[in-house]
# Entry
Amino acid sequence: MNIINFTPLSALTGGLLIGFAVFLLFAFNGRMAGVSSIAANFILKRELRVDNSLFLIGLILGPTIYSISGANIESVITNSIPILIIAGLAVGIGTRIGNGCTSGHGICGISRFSFRSIVATISFILTGIITVLIFGV
Amino acid sequence: MIRLISLLSGIIFGLGLTISGMVNPQKVLGFLNLFGEWDPSLIFVMVGAIIIFAPMHFIFKRKSRPIFAKEFQIINNRNIDKKLLIGSGLFGAGWGLAGLCPGPAIASISFLNPSILIFALFMFVGFFIANRIEKNI
# Structure
């Protein structure tokens, strides 16, 4: 194991901002900022659709606002179309069957000391590591 | 005001994902590449978010209601069942294939990169499929 591209300071800064965003939604609106739940509810449920869509619009505006500052945002994706389709379906189906993703289980759940979320987070990190081990980066 | 918080939380969340580099699938794959050239940054993102939200959640959950909304929407599912493990495992596999989870996938819609748009589209298709098959698992 070699450590490369490690950016602890920007990672921590971004993480603190995400924590603050999750805190805002909980303290003011009483809701958990699990992105897969919010996105799925936005398409499947009428209830809170405006709130959910505003959160998602905000999420899309985030990188846009950041790029106005002139900073360059790196985003590289190299997968073929069939793999993108399989991966998208796996993430969509998996997060709903498992009731959460990196934000819902990984951040919100662990912050609440939910054992269920800790098990979920270990599970998806583990299968993620195994997938990269098999298919490569 | 609830709607403003939803938008603001989304924007800050999106900024956090951008600053931390998590909108770059290569950075996420670098974290999952534990047995190759490893990039531990993602851990710092999660720790940053949790050190903000864990204490804030502890303080605010004791209040009778959120600042703006009428009540807290608290999930108290403690079951560690087949659904949680299958769902999270499947999510991790998709995450490991493309390096995208729901938050960064939606934030990255702003880049208008066709590969990411295909992933995001099929993630939403996955939400629909999960909604149909969930009861049979």
User: Anything to note?
Assistant: Chain A touches chain B through 109 residues (CB under 8 Å). The longest helix of chain A spans residues 8-29. DSSP finds six helices and one strand in chain A.
